[in-house]
Design brief:
Length: 46
């Protein structure tokens, strides 16, 4: 992945979170919960 691709991907993700927070859609909380589950799962296998 090039730096330009990573930058565009980060901008796209930030924009998606921004839209979600602005319109109060609830996807941010879902994504953060799944991220916490993923971190717990990865920590278990460490």
């Amino acid at each position: 992945m090039t730096n330009a691709t990573a930058l565009w991907l980060a901008i796209l993700i930030a924009a998606a979170f921004g839209v979600d927070l602005y319109f109060d859609l609830g996807g941010t909380l879902f994504a953060l919960r799944k991220l916490a589950d993923l971190i717990d799962w990865v920590a278990f296998w460490r």
